[in-house]
From TrEMBL, chains A, B:
GO molecular function: 3-dehydroquinate synthase activity; metal ion binding; nucleotide binding
Signal peptide residue numbers: none
Organism whose genome encodes this protein: Luminiphilus syltensis NOR5-1B
Chief location of this protein within or outside the cell: cytoplasm
Cofactor remark: Binds 1 divalent metal cation per subunit. Can use either Co(2+) or Zn(2+).
Superkingdom field: Bacteria
Gene3D superfamilies: 3.40.50.1970, Dehydroquinate synthase-like - alpha domain (1.20.1090.10)
The protein's role, per its UniProt record: Catalyzes the conversion of 3-deoxy-D-arabino-heptulosonate 7-phosphate (DAHP) to dehydroquinate (DHQ).
Keywords assigned by UniProt, alphabetized: Amino-acid biosynthesis, Aromatic amino acid biosynthesis, Cobalt, Cytoplasm, Lyase, Metal-binding, NAD, Nucleotide-binding, Zinc
Name of the protein in question: 3-dehydroquinate synthase
Single biological process term from Gene Ontology: amino acid biosynthetic process
Pathway where this protein functions: Metabolic intermediate biosynthesis; chorismate biosynthesis; chorismate from D-erythrose 4-phosphate and phosphoenolpyruvate: step 2/7
Encoding gene, per UniProt annotation: aroB
Similarity comment text for this entry: Belongs to the sugar phosphate cyclases superfamily. Dehydroquinate synthase family.
Amino acid sequence: MSTCLHTLHVDLSTPSSDRSYPILIGRDLLADESIFADILEGRDVILVSNDVVAPIFAARVRGALGSRRRVTEVILRDGEANKTMAAVGDILDAALADRHERGAVMVALGGGVVGDITGFAAACYLRGIDFLQLPTTLLAQVDSSVGGKTGVNHPQGKNMIGAFHQPIAVLIDLQTLHSLPAREFSAGIAEVIKYGLISDIGFFDWLEQSASRLLAREESVLAEAIERSCAVKADVVSADEREGGVRAILNFGHTFGHAIEQVQGYGRWLHGEAVACGMVMAARVSAARGQVPRDFVDRLVALLGRFELPVTPPEDMSVADLMASMAGDKKVVEGRIRFILLAQPGNAVIVDDVSAAEIESACFDRANLD
Amino acid sequence: MSTCLHTLHVDLSTPSSDRSYPILIGRDLLADESIFADILEGRDVILVSNDVVAPIFAARVRGALGSRRRVTEVILRDGEANKTMAAVGDILDAALADRHERGAVMVALGGGVVGDITGFAAACYLRGIDFLQLPTTLLAQVDSSVGGKTGVNHPQGKNMIGAFHQPIAVLIDLQTLHSLPAREFSAGIAEVIKYGLISDIGFFDWLEQSASRLLAREESVLAEAIERSCAVKADVVSADEREGGVRAILNFGHTFGHAIEQVQGYGRWLHGEAVACGMVMAARVSAARGQVPRDFVDRLVALLGRFELPVTPPEDMSVADLMASMAGDKKVVEGRIRFILLAQPGNAVIVDDVSAAEIESACFDRANLD
């Protein structure tokens, strides 16, 4: 028997279309045949995973899917470097080879990379079929579960090709977090902390108090952290599904973070590590503007430090590298780079007037940072 | 000065989202700078065409786009065989190489293949940017202008990969029809006749009466035929944007038609030619069921004959070939092949109980057909 600790409903419905879906958070959900039967009924499945996650979790999911539906399995190679159109092509080829019809459901078992690739494949297959998310990393659980962003990278930049496509449900099995390497767990915590920073200072305070229990991966604390993170994200996304405005605050730390990842080459730092560093940089610029106290930056640095997350840019990276990279980011509006700063702790704001000099002074004066 | 003969508004709006767009039908629209300025304002453009259409029309479009916006040009190879993910990749590569942002607009100048590829590229680029249709074939003008279907072929079948993505506007320049080869013009007429068959018998009657003037490509008659075709399609699509139900009647003649194209290899018959034959086959099955008079089938055969469209399956194709091919089509629901028949002239109906024997008797008894 599984135990469902939290259920959150994401509601993106309009009067003319029902697009709400549940996020179930609990223990042993991936092995629970009745949950899959409720969500998928008798529909066929294209199960997509990768060569790291599949050996651990695919067997229990196959078991829970039962023997009465057709299941096509696609195992991708692990890693951000494989988040490409070629991987999407592999999924589409496999689905077509087995002649899956519009009623089939793509099921993403893995981290954010598997989820993003599979969601995009589902968006394109026969012009769009349903998909179900089974995120197995903390980052994917708090980031990819809500928002509907799917897609792949291009040599010119991250997530340049994709679609908005909402899942029919998200199952978050807390068991997956016990086998997660410490570095990947911390990368997910970075995004959790982000939600506190941008819109719920009470959540940030709670995270400071709960850091030891999070590090011990206590399930009840993990469940609460995930649920509150998804709730913040769902609130923001509901207000702005297609990213015209307020949704941009979810990119807090990401403009710097993406630039760090791109300049270094994807994969040297994990996405969440780059975001952790990016959040500190954005907080430092905010503090330099007098919008948050300097000791709030210190609290942020200390909290990230508990999880061994990086808080200063890579040694070999200059502010010029950063600015050049950011100029190619999607978050450019009419040639101006959009930054997310903190208006105050727990409250993010979008600005477009941050200069290279300001970033250099706040974030690259290494003598001051150490 | 251009002359706008008809303007049709396609309205797919819901209370929460505005998704209506205009279809402008007239003479010299592609050279009209003020029309492009109204629709595109100052936005940058990725202009996509092919190596047959671009030499004829690209210069006038470039002129009408003016010199103040950035224009990236992508010239694809002509033909259905090039409707592939590789072509989509070429467009995305070019757009990314020039660092086009979310405000840029993809402009499709060409027939249905260019429109479908470009629309899908626009749907995927930065998770979706706007696109503008400039259809240069009659088929594209009456078929691709309305409905939002975009996508590419896969070795396993036509249009297997794609997205629903609505254009911001469609400009139909009647001048493009004067240079269209007779065979392609007739292929477009097949779809025009389809709209009469499925939902407007008065339009079918008018087409019989206007056949000579259509063959002479009189602009006022062309404009009316296009406008009435788009109006029928818009009515059907508005009622069922995502193809759950009634929209399937637009596939009248297409289930047979796609099978003919696939069994022969794409390109031997034009899509519209295969549809013409498919419509006769569907009409014959309908007549065999007593739903339309046999002399109505004769009228249809005669009208298609005026435009030299094929009305019998290829000599070397068997009913078994056809059934095997149709089993792999998207129009399969839970293993049953969905057919569109005529309930009566001017009124289509969806059925799933047509047997191979019924098709063979109605459509492959060659002695009876000649």
